[in-house]
Design brief:
about 180 residues, mainly alpha, two-stranded antiparallel sheet, 7 helices, 2 strands, about 5% strand, transmembrane helix, membrane, ThiW protein, transmembrane
């Protein structure tokens, strides 16, 4: 995989925004719902692609854990959502699929993947679907905010400009040849 310095810089900026706003969380059950992470996941998936999205989600979760503002449950939820949203957008070029990918990836798949992390690593007793509802609530909130932001960017022309600056085809989400 070739490293794109522009994408790496944007990924670092999204990580910085997500970490700096990590104080904005909503405790629901045993998890901390963090809508800013899901906003960053959607933006990373759409503008950077699935692998940079996963890297951004991992770095954000890692730094938040080091700072004590996150939990180990942030890893599976955020990374799966960032990947699926980015992959679906890259593959089909439809924003709606990026939103659905983030919500399904984080809310359903990520929520279920938290079960082994919670029980085996954190020593908590939980049902396999215990984290699905809180994660769905968090990811839907962040994804709605992302959809609104992307809608504003699209109407202003900034969406297409940003895609071009990152060397991506606006229609397909694939790298443009030069």
């Amino acid at each position: 995989m070739k490293v794109n310095i522009k994408k790496l810089a944007v990924s670092a900026m999204l990580t910085a925004v997500a970490v700096s706003l990590s104080g904005f969380s909503i405790p629901i059950g045993a998890s901390k719902c963090f809508p800013v992470q899901h906003l960053a996941n959607v933006l990373a998936g759409v503008f950077l692609g699935p692998w940079y999205g996963v890297g951004m989600a991992f770095c954000t979760s890692f730094i938040r854990n080091l700072m004590g503002t996150g939990s180990l449950l942030a890893f599976p939820g955020s990374m799966v959502g960032a990947f699926l949203g980015g992959y679906l957008y890259q593959r089909f070029g439809r924003l709606t699929l990026a939103y659905i990918g983030e919500v399904f990836g984080t809310g359903i798949l990520g929520g279920m993947l938290c079960y082994p992390v919670a029980t085996l690593v954190m020593g908590k007793e939980a049902a396999i679907f215990a984290y699905v509802i809180p994660f769905l609530m968090s990811t839907m909130c962040g994804t709605v905010i992302a959809a609104f932001l992307i809608g504003v960017l699209y109407k202003s022309g900034a969406f297409q400009y940003m895609r071009r600056m990152l060397d991506l085809d606006v229609q397909t989400g694939k790298a443009m040849g030069r």
